[in-house]
């Protein structure tokens, strides 16, 4: 397994046509953070509150694999193939979501970039430029909660902490100012987020 920032074995990119001369800020509100930060619980609560929510691509694919009798490790057996599929799906999601309605997403394309680097897959210059042009409206970063292992979260606590740091650093590298969501009950997290987005 590659560590983030190490030399990649493979570069994934898309045609130069994806890059335009105009920056676009979408209404996508990202719920970000490392493992065990409470993203899933918060997103479910946001959906119950009437907001549109797009789930995490990786989580959905892994859950489907587990339901069919595979382990999370088996689903991700070929790291290059796995990450390339996620990059393609996440690109299409980000590129096709509407710009005029609030949408909450479980993580983002940027976090897929992080996990791709860990698998030895780098993104090319066209995707790098595209990510700096097509912007998420906000990135809410969740502080870690008490660690709990699951079949999906196959990483240990120390890896989870490291991933959280890498996620924060990657968003900042792409020019995002993260909005820290404190480790409080989900109802308070919802109220905090609403207080931010209702300022628009």
Q: What would you note in describing this structure?
A:
This protein starts with 9 loop residues before the first strand and ends with a helix. The longest helix has 18 residues, at 79-96. The model is unreliable at 1-5 (pLDDT under 50). The chain contains eight helices and nine strands. Helix 1 packs across helix 8 (186-197). The relative contact order is 0.23. Strand 8, helix 7 and strand 9 form a beta-alpha-beta unit. The protein has a single domain, classed as 3-Layer(aba) Sandwich (Rossmann fold). It is globular. By secondary structure, the chain is of the alpha/beta class. It has a five-stranded parallel beta sheet, sandwiched between helices. Strands 1-6 form a two-stranded parallel ribbon. The protein has a two-stranded parallel sheet with strand order 2-7. Helices cover 46% and strands 15% of the residues.
Based on the model shown, name its key terms.
200 residues; alpha/beta; Rossmann fold; five-stranded parallel beta sheet; two-stranded parallel ribbon; 8 helices; 9 strands; 46% helix; globular; disordered N terminus
